[in-house]
Write a sequence for this structure.
């Protein structure tokens, strides 16, 4: 492996699920902006709803999500009451509009239980138009998926489930605090398909403690036995200064940059050789999957949930830490459940920060999204001149090609697309936030 590739792989850059990125959100954007932007949506605007549930039965060591562990019913029920009230607050400003996508994330959103999931869905259906709903997705923990839950998901129309796998090797599972044998995931996939929930996504990870290239390849091979529609292959981001639970991971057991690159390539080739299509930076899909079709047509999108086919005019996030995107900018709810619930109890939107787009943000954001989705983009002369000092070293090392203003990642450069995106980020140098490794 070329030493220059290792240098690039060790650089720290944002994941670019948004632009401007979350570290640049400020308290200058609050509940008033959120409410005004909701109310300004045209009557025919389409919405995507994301509901965040920050609870799990237990907390995995590697987790980077905003969540906490509890097995008590009371705090989850109290939170669900506030979610229901927040749906009403949003509907007072933007109700009746068509919702084209619903996604439940966390944490473990199924921790709400069948009855609360049904109740929240009923409130959404009462206050919004679901006749044009194109996708209804949920993140699931295979260890917590029961027949009763599967029936409830089918009843509310969930048609896509993302299952957290990470790695099937026992020694890796032990090191990350998530014991989940293959048979558990296999049982969950069978259960979901039996109730008609046929679209299955699997999330895999590389760069985990004690993980080897052989582990990653074997995990990908086992995942393929489940015939998923999509797979995501994420590099573990070790950020214990942000997520204290990651301090439970032995840093000395983490693979270095060279091993991470080899693991990512081993998994990628296993999936590609089995007929899956590479999507953007880290997703794979069957050739006939809607995501693969959108990628071929140049309609793939990227938001805080990762790659998506969602074309809605606005993304409305509900729950603690949830982020919304409007034509005017981003808003984010209070990250802590207590702060979120206090705001809702006061009949106020829970927004605590955000960012209003400048014309330059809109221009750069669109280019960064296309680069992250299509792995190529055309730059005007001004931006090309500005980005050249960062793009030319990547081109010299064979990671991208520069042809006039056309920037295109090479096959070997695909894992480094975040570095190319960083070249277009006018705010990055001013930020003080630490980011995860590029690969």
């Amino acid at each position: 492996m070329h030493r220059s590739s290792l240098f690039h792989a060790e650089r720290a850059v944002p994941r670019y699920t948004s632009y401007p990125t979350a570290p640049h959100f400020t308290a200058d954007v609050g509940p008033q902006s959120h409410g005004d932007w909701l109310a300004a949506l045209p009557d025919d605007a389409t919405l995507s709803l994301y509901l965040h549930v920050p609870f799990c039965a237990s907390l995995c060591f590697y987790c980077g999500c905003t969540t906490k562990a509890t097995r008590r019913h009371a705090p989850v029920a109290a939170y669900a009451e506030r979610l229901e009230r927040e749906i009403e607050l949003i509907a007072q400003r933007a109700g009746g509009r068509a919702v084209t996508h619903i996604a439940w994330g966390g944490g473990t959103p199924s921790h709400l239980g069948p009855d609360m999931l049904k109740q929240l869905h009923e409130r959404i259906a009462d206050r919004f138009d679901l006749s044009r709903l194109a996708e209804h997705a949920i993140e699931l923990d295979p260890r917590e998926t029961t027949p009763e839950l599967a029936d409830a998901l089918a009843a509310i129309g969930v048609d896509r489930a993302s299952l957290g796998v990470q790695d099937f090797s026992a020694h890796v599972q032990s090191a990350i605090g998530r014991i989940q044998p293959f048979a558990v995931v296999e049982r969950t996939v069978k259960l979901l398909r039996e109730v008609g929930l046929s679209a299955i996504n699997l999330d895999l990870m590389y760069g985990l403690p004690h993980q080897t290239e052989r582990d990653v390849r074997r995990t990908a091979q086992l995942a393929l036995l489940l015939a998923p529609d999509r797979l995501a292959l994420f590099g573990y981001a070790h950020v214990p200064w942000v997520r204290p639970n990651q301090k439970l991971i032995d840093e000395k057991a983490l693979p270095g940059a060279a091993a991470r690159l080899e693991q990512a390539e081993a998994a990628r080739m296993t999936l590609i050789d089995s007929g899956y299509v590479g999507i953007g930076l880290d997703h794979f899909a069957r050739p006939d999957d809607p995501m693969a079709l959108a990628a071929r047509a140049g309609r793939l999108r990227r938001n805080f949930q990762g790659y998506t086919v969602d074309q809605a005019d606005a993304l409305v996030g509900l729950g603690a830490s949830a982020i919304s995107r409007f034509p005017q900018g981003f808003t984010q709810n209070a990250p802590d459940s207590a702060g979120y619930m206090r705001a809702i109890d006061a009949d106020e939107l829970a927004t605590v920060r955000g960012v209003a787009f400048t014309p330059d943000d809109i221009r750069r954001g669109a280019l960064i999204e296309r680069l992250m989705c299509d792995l190529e983009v055309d730059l005007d002369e001004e931006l090309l001149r500005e980005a050249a000092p960062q793009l030319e070293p990547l081109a010299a090392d064979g990671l991208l090609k520069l042809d006039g203003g056309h920037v295109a990642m090479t096959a070997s450069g695909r894992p480094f697309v975040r570095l190319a995106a960083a070249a277009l980020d006018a705010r990055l140098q001013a930020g003080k936030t630490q980011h995860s490794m590029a690969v």
